[in-house]
Amino acid sequence: MMGDSVAAELLKLRSLRSSWVVLAASVLAIAAGGVLAVLITADFDGSSLERRATFDSADMSVVIIPLLALVTASVAAAVFTGEYGSGLIRTTLTGVPSRRKLFAAKTLVVGLVAFALGQVVSFALFGLTLAAVGDRPAPIAPWTSAAAGVPSAVASGSIIAVVCLLALGLGAVVRSTAGTLVTVAVLLYVVPGLAAFLPAAVSDWVFALWLLNLAPQMVGGDGSLLSPVGAVAVAVGYAVVPLGCGWFLFSRRDA
Predict the structure, then answer these.
(1) According to the model, what pLDDT value does residue 122 have?
(2) Local structure of residue 187 (DSSP, 8 states)
(3) How confident is the model at residue 192, as a pLDDT?
(4) Would you say 33 and 130 are in contact if contact means Cβ atoms under 8 Å apart?
(5) For position 39, what pLDDT does the model report?
(6) How far apart are the C-alpha atoms of 119 and 98, rounded to whole Å?
(7) 190-200: pLDDT as tens digits
(8) Is 16 helix (H, G, I), strand (E, B) or coil?
(9) Cβ distance 67 to 161 under 8 Å?
(10) Cα 146 to the chain's mean position, in Å?
């Protein structure tokens, strides 16, 4: 049954030492985000009116989420690459002969766990930012009200799930944790740097389609080239395309 496969994959995920490392890293990331928000707000308070106008907002999710994304991707990739590296995939397929069911179970577990973790981290940073900023005005205040910031928190947290599903699909394709993480790192951190050397008309679209720049566009942020629906569609594509490739190869290659 599908439920048994999901339960087995969840148990394997919990047994990975790296899963607990990610949990610890998430707690530290939240704490670091809160400290940074307090420090930036204190600097804002001690600055002149002219300098205050140059400040970015105290929303630390724009710093923490991109860094945490690669950490969580390492666990998502290991859901496939770890089993291939140890040879455990053969045992798994003996217990669950249906590759479609096994792939679906892994996808469901990684997607739901990553989404839950992303939301917890994002809303924790959201709350800490609100507490640090208080009733201070823009630009240090990221949102006009707490309610206005909720969609941004949901969108930011969902990026963790997208990155993890991307890593899961790539892991099924390349069967190498190192290869998967290098590919994810290039997509997250190298591509935008290379885009800066392209003509402005091209680089603007590269930045708009960049995975880590989709969250603000999902909620119609200022200067968005993509509509909210378009940004969500691109985010879904980042997950679906590698998962589709992974499923195609997983269903046809030998274990």
Answers:
(1) 96
(2) I
(3) 85
(4) no
(5) 93
(6) 32
(7) 988 888 888 88
(8) coil
(9) no
(10) 23
- The span from the CA of 66 to the CA of 212, in Å, is 7
Backbone angles phi, psi at 10, to 5 degrees: -65, -40
User: What pLDDT shows up at residue 4?
Assistant: 80
Structure tokens that stand for 22 in this block: 């990610």
* Residue-wise DSSP of 23-62: HHHHHHHHHHHHHHHHHHHHHHHTS-HHHHTTPPP--THH
Please name the residue that has the structure tokens 């766990």: 113
Decide if 243 contacts 165 (C-beta within 8 A): yes
Which of left, alpha, beta for 136 (phi over 0: left; psi -120 to 50: alpha)? beta
Residue 1: per-residue pLDDT: 64
Give the distance, in angstroms, between the CA of residue 2 and the centroid of all CA atoms in the same chain: 26
The residues, any chain, with a CB within 8 Å of residue 47's CB and separated by 6 or more, are 55
Alpha-carbon distances, residue 252 vs 42, 79, 172, 249 (angstroms): 58, 19, 12, 5
HSE-up (13 A, CA, CB side) for residue 194: 8
Q: Which stretches of the chain score pLDDT less than 50?
A: none
Instruction: Name residue 42's amino acid.
Output: A
pLDDT, position 194: 87
